[in-house]
Amino acid sequence: MNDIATYREFKLRVPIWDISDDDGDSTNTESLFAILSVTPHHTSLAQLYDSFHDYSAARDDGDPYGRIGRGDLFIFTSDVDDDCFIAIDMFDEATDQMNTIEIAIRTPEDRANNIEQILQSIRSSAEVATALLQGDLGLKESLTIENFPRIIPNHDTEAVQQAQVYRGGCLIHTTEST
User: Fold this and answer.
1) Could you tell me which residue, 5 or 159, shows the higher pLDDT?
2) Do residues 31 and 118 lie in contact, with contact meaning Cβ atoms separated by under 8 Å?
3) CA-to-CA distance for 14 and 12, rounded, in angstroms?
4) pLDDT in tens, 92-120
């Protein structure tokens, strides 16, 4: 008998406002966290996204230039399964005019169909979205904390992206120096 749990991984890119706003995370987002047994951060994902805006880099109020080349990867690990997580990549590259974020999920196979339905719902109602990728995408290996900070090509420059790992709603690891 095989006791090794199997997992399915998903990736989807949508605008931040399709999963969260200043009032809180969407019902679909809350459902993802609940199905994965992940305690969410006390701050909405939209507020975390906005926290990377550098007002000194913006030319005027509302100028998106203050976000370009910024944004950490947030990894929210399941409270009950170290191999299960939802990761939100908040990096804003130079050509992104829609404030997109990437959702990456690793879930046990027995919850994968529920996760897929929710991600399809998010995708179908999003203003813009990429294809919903699923399968063995190598997320566990590529998003390991040892791969951070990482250098991200950003148009004609490079940017450094940090990672923050949460469990039980609390920060347990960050690659950013304090």
Assistant:
1) 159
2) yes
3) 7
4) 876 777 888 899 999 999 999 999 999 99
- Look at residue 92 and tell me if it is in a domain: yes
Residues 6+ apart with CB under 8 A from 12: 102, 103, 119, 122, 123, 129, 130, 132, 133
Token output for 41:
């951060």
Residues 12-68 pLDDT 10s: 999 988 888 878 888 999 999 999 999 988 888 877 777 766 555 545 555 555 556
Is pLDDT above 70 for 155? yes
Residue 77 lies in a domain: yes
Angle between helices 109-125 and 27-35 (to 10 degrees): 170
- Residue 2 inside a domain? The answer is no
User: Tokens representing 143?
Assistant: 């998003």
Cβ-based neighbour number of residue 131 at 10 Å: 9
Backbone dihedral angles phi then psi of residue 7, each to the nearest 5 degrees: -125, 155
Indicate the length of the chain as a whole number: 178
Residue 1: inside a domain: no
What's the domain range around 57?
Answer: 7-174
Total of domains in the chain: 1
